[in-house]
Amino acid sequence: MRLRACIALLLYVSACATSAPIPREPAAWDPRLVNLQRAATLPWTDRGRCAVREASESWPVLAERCFHALDHDRIEFHDTTGRCAVASAGAAAVGVGLCVLAAPELVVGTVIVAGVVVVGFVIKEALDAYEKRGRPQVRPAPETRPAPGTKPVPQEPSPKKRPKPEPKGPDFPPVGPTDTTERDRRPECQPIPVPHRGGNNHHNKCADRIPYNSFSGWDVLVNGKQFDALQLATRTLWEVKTDDFDIHSPRSQAFFAKVKLPEIRYEARLAKECGYNFAVGVKSAAHKEALERLDRTLTIVVMEWC
Predict the structure, then answer these.
(1) 3-state SS, residue 282
(2) CA distances from 137 to 25, 106, 131, 166, 278 (A)
(3) SS3 of 223, please?
(4) Helix 59-66 vs helix 93-101: crossing angle, to nearest 10
(5) Contact, 238 vs 227, CB < 8 A?
(6) Which of the four, 33, 138, 169, 238, has the lowest number of CB atoms within 10 Å?
(7) What is the pLDDT of residues 236-286, one digit of tens each?
């Protein structure tokens, strides 16, 4: 009798152990498609070219590289968590806006678009290509919240509508894609706003007025160096030189430029190590010419706003 009971118990346990197999995990998410779906909810001035070009990168990288291509007149950024206000305290609105947009998970209400969102034609083409290929299951992209009474409408833009030209500053490095590697993700390569070094208000004002300065009112710490400004849209770090270069004799000018050159090259190397461009702002054409005679690889800009 005991033997039969034991056999029955073993059969019961065996049946439980060989029950229906555990379902497999769903197919891996396609990060490129997720990025395209998220970008499709935003208004672009370039019909989505930048977003499609950078879609294979992580969303924060895409947001940083393509922030300049958004239609900023139709989009508002709200830092509902307070995280960006702390990270970008005192920074210009573009700094907080980029911080909000670059968040890996978009919180409802943080990005608000006014009017009807017309999916950028280039983004729509990329999404249509995915649909034709029959991609595996994809996690839905986080949604932005449009203004009341509006909703996204996927359609081609009117041929009469032309994208707004991208703004240009005086003698300003062009906007364009830059290579990003793992070095950009090193902690020391992450830009940190820090207070201006005191003692030269004119110098600080010139730095704050650099076109599209993402952290106006602050210096930016990158790779152990406190730079005067950072343009996130072009990934360009700046150093400002406000010396009264023109009051010196040509011989003194040449000597002064030569003495400062090693420091400038060192700053350029630190910026390059973290994947940033580097520019030097000067007050006069004579100062620019003197530095360019010594090193043609440097980007020297005459600060007409200073």
Answers:
(1) strand
(2) 11, 20, 11, 36, 42
(3) coil
(4) 150
(5) yes
(6) 169
(7) 999 999 888 888 898 998 999 999 999 999 999 999 999 999 999 999 999
